[in-house]
Amino acid sequence: MVKNRTGQKTGQRRRPRPERPERTERIERDENVIVGRNPVTEALKSGRTVEKLYVQQNAGGSLGRVIQLAKEKGVPVMEAGKAALDKMAAGLPHQGVAAAVTPYSYADFDDVMKKAADAGEDPFIIILDGIEDPHNLGAVMRTAECAGAHGVVIPKRHSCGLTETVAKASAGAIEYMPCVKVTNIAQTIDMLKEEGFWVCACDMGGTDYYKQDLTGKLAVVIGGEGSGVSRLVKEKCDFTVSMRLCGSINSLNASNAAAILMYEVRRQRDEGK
User: Fold this and answer.
1) Strand, helix or coil at 186?
2) Cβ atoms within 10 A of the Cβ of 131, count?
3) Strand partners, 129
4) How far apart are CA 117 and CA 244, in angstroms?
5) Can you tell me the distance from the alpha carbon of 68 to that of 72, in angstroms, rounded to the nearest whole number?
6) For the chain, N or C: smaller number of CB within 10 Å?
7) DSSP-derived 3-state class of residue 217
8) How far apart are CA 240 and CA 228, in angstroms?
9) Rounded-to-integer distance, Cα 221 and Cα 209, Å
10) What is the DSSP string of 72-138?
């Protein structure tokens, strides 16, 4: 019962308060789902096992080429609503397509050496000493593929692994660039040196990178975000190269530094042909 303006009671009831909406359920990423037109296309082209292709209903544009490629590979193509794709993507831009795939597999050093031999080049390896940001790992793999490196090495601990976020950041390069996961970076450097590799650390206090001979069998070590190359790993390296910094910021992003150095290696190799 409520009172009117004169203070008399009436039979009118208060309106019930509207119910609060339930808290949105957090959607976990399925790391065995690739989203986005370019990553899905590269997965299909590389020969990776794709279980199913999900395409948004009434989607057009370049999706026609993705569908055709899937059919050529014998991959079942299913239509899906935008809401279903949004859920599969869990926040990543899917561009109307998703693919269910087998988990990413790691390579070994035989795969890296074969890639170099097939290219008729001395092996060129990127060693990542504690890169934990998947976007940085993806960016390094993308540049490594473009610059003609033959493999990327990451440690089992204190490092990002191969995930869908890495795949997206790599723009499909993850399908072509061998990635070796090792127990100990320092021991891996010792093994590579026994195989005739020169091992170069990218860190402060070294030779200007463009003045250093970077030809022959080469492994380049890039340090983690913030911490750089660890002391033990740096001591294992044959030499250190640096990049002159002329602004107010005293460091480069790990993937940017890796890109500069990889293309210097490529320049020197091309000039030596």
Assistant:
1) helix
2) 24
3) 223
4) 34
5) 6
6) C
7) coil
8) 12
9) 13
10) HTT--EEEE-HHHHHHHHTTS--TTEEEEEPPP--B-HHHHHHHHHHHTS--EEEEEES---HHHHH
For residues 89 and 151, what is the distance between their CA atoms, to the nearest angstrom? 28
Hey, is 238 helix, strand or coil?
Answer: coil
- What tens-digit pLDDT sequence spans the chain (273 residues)? 555 555 555 555 555 554 443 333 333 456 688 888 888 998 898 877 888 899 988 766 778 888 899 989 888 898 888 888 888 888 788 889 999 887 778 999 999 999 999 999 999 999 999 888 999 999 999 999 999 999 999 998 878 888 878 888 998 899 899 999 998 999 999 999 999 999 999 998 899 999 999 999 999 999 987 778 999 999 999 999 999 888 777 778 899 999 999 999 999 999 976
Cα distances from 97 to residues 83, 92, 104, 140, 181, in angstroms, run 12, 11, 19, 25, 30
CB count within 10 Å of CB 191 equals: 13
> What distance in Å separates the CA atoms of residue 64 and residue 197, rounded to the nearest whole number?
46
